[in-house]
Amino acid sequence: MVLGTTSCRATAPLVMMMMMMMMAATETAAVPKGSKTVQLLLDPSALVPSRIFRPLQNVSISPWTYNTSSDSSLLMPALSEARCLLRGCLNLEGKEDLSLESRPIMHQVLVLRRVRAAGAGHSYHYHLESRLIAVGCTCVKPVVQVQQ
């Protein structure tokens, strides 16, 4: 279900948090029995502030927007995905050039899906899944094959 669009500024922290959670989940799954699990605490004051810059999707020759979908069975229920705004690409005058093509940039992400445990009532476990999502758009030359 598509909820709307979000800005790059709102998406970046969400993506970073999801990546950290996925890394922690895969490392936790590989921990041998008898090992000690410790909580990871991040100090926000130690983070380096990022420079203010224009969002790439607004200055690209292949502009895009973000659509956010929702799935309540995922650990992070909202997932943003890029959608190319043009079939072609913008030329120097800012007009669409259909001799080039806008294509999505695909990236594989890991998500955790909440699954009800068999015969355990209200007990759940998490299943690690892989998804291929569009994270932006790029401009490419179309592939033309001449048939003889």
UniProtKB/TrEMBL annotation:
Q: Which GO terms describe its cellular component?
A: extracellular space
- Does this entry carry the keyword Transcription? no
Q: Which UniProt keywords apply?
A: Cytokine, Secreted, Signal
Asked if the record carries the keyword Lipid metabolism, the reply is no
- Any idea which GO molecular function terms this record carries? cytokine activity
Q: Where in the cell is it found?
A: Secreted
Instruction: Give GO BP annotations, semicolon-separated.
Output: inflammatory response
Q: Which SUPFAM superfamilies match?
A: Cystine-knot cytokines (SSF57501)
Q: What is its main location?
A: secreted
The positions making up the signal sequence are 1-30
Q: Which InterPro entries match?
A: Cystine-knot_cytokine (IPR029034), IL-17_chr (IPR020440), IL-17_fam (IPR010345)
Q: Domain of life here?
A: Eukaryota
Member of which family? Belongs to the IL-17 family.
Q: What is this protein called?
A: Interleukin 17a/f1
